[in-house]
């Protein structure tokens, strides 16, 4: 049995899924999608029903969303289980898992989006260990417009982020209480550990937040669930916004009146971003042209593991940049001219045994 995981650099739901696969010892390959053309990649070539990551494919089955994937992984390989056998304990774990996705995931996404957009230079660090099929330097050059669009689409305004930071201590306290009650961070890990741990771990990539999280039970859980999470953003949050966290404010989140989103329903952050290709098409075309000159003759295509943009004009944009095609077993798209062909190299992705 081998699983193919589709995700994006800097995605906490993707990291949660990867951590569950590793915990179970399931062999998998990970393919990172570049933040544009998701509708083309996930729906058409890959056959997934929704435009969301994380997504896994195994033995002809396709599952999307970290909570759905947790149950699919238990079906594929029951041991070690991601949910307790005891009915009451399972209810508690599932409630914590639900809260982690519906209540915690998006506010953390908004905070990190705002901070990475404000710092500018930190986006490259979130691409470490990624397998996108293009050099990290090139991907980093193309990322800022998508991060800016992600800030808008995810309503990560200064007002919302400040409110989220005011409630962060309360959210972490809830995690600490679940740990004390034995729902989280027990002898055996569970799905809620990975769901919540990945979001807390993403928050810890911000130097502004790391000192306030690292020493508490929630921080220890995060490092246990996801030992390594790429990304390191320098201090950029205004000190006044951080004061409630440092003074242990009991405020709660998400910000009043703001919509809640889950990673399994929307493409957001470095995870899933909505943006018009036209905003970056000129720079992308120039970058690909230069890259092609470095790699080979003018007719040689540039391989990309995946492309991702949630945009109504995606097909027109895809035609403009020349999306060639892909093979299921290869998992790559080909960018090139009219004669672009599919690279049939089976050694794609990052494989884990």
Please explain how this structure is put together.
By secondary structure, the protein is of the alpha+beta class. It has a domain at about 85-245: Glutathione S-transferase Yfyf (Class Pi), Chain A, domain 2. It is about 45% helix and about 10% strand. It contains 13 helices and seven strands. The strands form two sheets. It has a five-stranded mixed beta sheet with strand order 4-3-1-2-7, covered by helices on one side. Strands 5-6 form a two-stranded antiparallel ribbon. Strand 3 and strand 4 (about 60-65) form a beta hairpin. It starts with a strand and ends with a strand. Residues about 265-290 and about 290-353 have low confidence and may be disordered.
What are the salient characteristics of this protein?
Glutathione S-transferase Yfyf (Class Pi), Chain A, domain 2; about 350 residues; five-stranded mixed beta sheet; alpha+beta; 13 helices; two-stranded antiparallel ribbon; disordered C terminus
Write the layout of secondary structure elements.
Elements lengths: L2 E5 L4 H13 L3 E5 L5 H6 L11 E4 L2 E4 L1 H11 L10 H33 L16 H7 L1 H10 L4 H24 L9 H13 L6 H5 L2 H9 L13 H8 L34 H15 L6 E3 L9 H8 L11 E3 L14 E3 L1
Helix pairs in contact: 1-3, 1-8, 4-6, 4-7, 4-8, 7-11, 8-10
Mean pLDDT: 75
Low-confidence stretches: 263-289, 291-353
Cα(first) to Cα(last) distance is 11 Å
CATH class of the domain at 87-246: Mainly Alpha
Strand content: 5-15%
Assembly state (oligomeric): single chain
The value of Rg in angstroms is 20 Å
CATH architectural name of the domain at 87-246: Up-down Bundle
Sheet with the most strands: spatial strand order: 4-3-1-2-7
Query: Which class best fits the helix and strand makeup?
Result: alpha+beta
How many strands, what sense, and barrel or not for the largest sheet? 5 strands, mixed
- What proportion of the residues is helical, as a percent range? 40-55%
């Amino acid at each position: 049995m081998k699983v193919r995981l589709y995700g994006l650099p800097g995605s906490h739901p993707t990291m949660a899924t990867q951590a569950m696969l590793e915990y179970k010892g399931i062999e998998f390959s990970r393919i990172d999608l570049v933040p544009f053309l998701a509708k083309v990649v996930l729906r058409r070539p890959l056959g997934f029903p929704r435009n969301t990551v994380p997504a896994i494919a195994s033995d002809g089955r396709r599952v999307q969303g970290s909570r759905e994937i947790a149950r699919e992984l238990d079906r594929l390989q029951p041991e070690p289980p991601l949910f307790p056998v005891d009915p009451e304990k399972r209810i508690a774990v599932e409630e914590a898992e639900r809260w982690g996705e519906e209540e915690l995931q998006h506010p953390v996404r908004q905070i990190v989006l705002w901070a990475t957009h404000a710092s500018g230079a930190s986006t490259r660090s979130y691409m470490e260990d990624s397998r996108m099929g293009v050099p990290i330097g090139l991907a980093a050059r193309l990322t800022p417009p998508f991060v800016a669009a992600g800030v808008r689409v995810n309503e990560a305004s200064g007002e919302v982020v400040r409110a989220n930071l005011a409630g962060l201590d309360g959210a972490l306290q809830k995690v600490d209480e679940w740990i004390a009650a034995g729902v989280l961070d027990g002898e055996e890990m569970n799905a809620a550990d990975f769901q919540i741990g990945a979001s807390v771990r993403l928050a810890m990539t911000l130097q502004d937040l790391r000192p306030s999280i690292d020493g508490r039970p929630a921080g220890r859980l995060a490092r246990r669930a996801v030992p390594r999470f790429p990304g390191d953003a320098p201090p950029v949050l205004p000190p006044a916004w951080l004061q409630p966290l440092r003074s242990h404010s009991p405020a709660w989140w998400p910000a009043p009146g703001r919509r809640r989103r889950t990673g399994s329903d929307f493409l957001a952050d470095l995870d899933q971003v909505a943006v018009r290709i036209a905003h970056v098409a000129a720079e992308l075309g120039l970058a690909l042209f230069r890259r092609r000159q470095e790699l080979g003759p003018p007719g040689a295509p540039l391989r990309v593991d995946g492309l991702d943009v949630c945009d109504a004009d995606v097909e027109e944009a895809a035609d403009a940049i020349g999306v060639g095609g892909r093979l299921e077993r290869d998992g790559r798209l080909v960018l090139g001219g009219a004669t672009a062909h599919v690279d049939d190299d089976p050694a794609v992705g990052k494989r884990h045994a």
